[in-house]
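Appendix B, example 12.
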Amino acid sequence: MPKIRTHKGTAKRLRVTSTGKVMRRKAFRSHMLEHKSAKRKRQYRMQHEVSASDSRKVIRLAPYL
């Protein structure tokens, strides 16, 4: 049985913690930052967990993360 190929776009955007959670970056941090409050921009820096339904899809796309 051949190995599954890793979807490289997914692998670059996400990481898996040692406990198995899939972590992602938040959206809306690329432009128009002068209109957003400091608190809002600070929150964008943090990693967030991918929802359970989406994490199953991610594991299929990048099984060897």
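The longest helix spans residues 52-61. The two ends are 20 Å apart (CA to CA).
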